[in-house]
Amino acid sequence: MIRQISGSARIWMLAACAAALALPIASPAQVPGSQTKLGMGIDQKLGATIPKDVPFKDETGRDIKFGDLLKGRPVVLIPIFYNCQTGCFLITQGLLKTIAKANQSNELVVGKDFDLVMLSIHPKETPELARDKKSEMIATLGRPDAAPSWHLLTGTLPNIHRVTDAIGFTYKYDPVKNLINHPTCSVILSPEGKISAYTIGNEFPTKVLLRDLDLARTNQVGEKADQSFMFGCIMVDPATGKTTVVVERVVQLGCIATLIVLPLWIGLMSLNNRRKALRQGGPLGSG
Q1: Residue 250 pLDDT more than 70?
Q2: 3 to each of 111, 253, 275, how far by Cα in Å?
Q3: CB neighbour list of residue 188: distance below 8 Å, 6 or more residues apart
Q4: Residue 35: what pLDDT?
């Protein structure tokens, strides 16, 4: 049996949701340059240029500079780390799914329409790990011809930061515990290395990616991506000690739904109580 909620209980429930909606975990799109309390965030630096002289190793162990990867096509740059099985796995799977579907129409072909660069944000990851990860993804996509234009980079922390700072990608690396908190995004670069667009989260709508690549191809800059649903992962949940995925604003979204549904539910319950009281000839309570 459902008990009637008292007036004071209603007020407390609504107040709790109002407080949750006011929590300071707004997305960096709303507060430029801001970071979450987990030490991760994205400050979209549209129009900025990636430093071309930063040295890395590719998946073969070859020494390269970032500028070597700019070969006259737009570049999709994804900062991840290869051993991550949460947010990074989801973003790579989302991209592979979009590419595979678009390839059926000869669109979004790696090596023809764009080059793909994945940058490990973990300084302890190796070219050997990058090579294995690339082989796995190439096999999943079923396009071995994409391999020459698909690069997986590893490097030192200062060099990694030169690129992540340039794209406004902030993450927290704990070298003692070997843990990383990071957001997920992709960055669309022009053939000259200019930041043209961002994709936030792990979804890659085909139309959006095609549009962003068209802008980058002509060295244009798009609009800021919506960061209302910032997605990322933390390696350890302080409460459980387990790896977990974090979706920002989930508390606010849940409370938005509660603020919409709860008054309707309370109204229906009050109406039912009034009808019952009228049928029984009793007094109408205020709740």
Answers
A1: no
A2: 63, 26, 15
A3: 74, 75, 76, 77, 195, 196, 197, 198, 199, 212, 213, 215, 216, 222
A4: 45
Residue 202: the pLDDT is 76
Task: Please compute, for residue 14, the number of CA atoms within 13 A of its CA located in the half-sphere on the CB side.
Answer: 15
Residue 19, Cβ density class (10 Å: 0-12 exposed, 13-18 middle, ≥19 buried)? exposed
The pair of three-digit structure tokens given for residue 125, joined into one six-digit string:
């990851």
By the 10 Å C-beta count (0-12 exposed, 13-18 middle, 19+ buried), 230 is classed as buried
For 98-138, what is each residue's pLDDT tens digit? 999 999 999 999 999 999 999 999 999 999 999 999 999 99
Do residues 88 and 129 lie in contact, with contact meaning Cβ atoms separated by under 8 Å? Answer: no
Question: What is the reported pLDDT for 31?
Answer: 31
- The distance from CA 182 to its chain's CA centroid, rounded to whole angstroms, is 9
Under a CB-based contact definition with an 8 Å cutoff, are residues 118 and 153 in contact? yes
- Summarised one tens digit per residue, pLDDT across range 256-266 is 545 555 556 55
Radius of gyration (C-alpha) of the chain in whole angstroms: 24
CB-facing half-sphere around the CA of 171: CA atoms within 13 A: 30
Question: Is the pLDDT confidence value at 83 over 50?
Answer: yes
CATH architecture designation of domain 41-247 = 3-Layer(aba) Sandwich (3.40)
- What's the pLDDT score for residue 268? 66
- Domain ranges, ordered by start, for the chain: 7-23+249-280, 41-247
CA 198 to CA 186: how far, in whole Å?
6
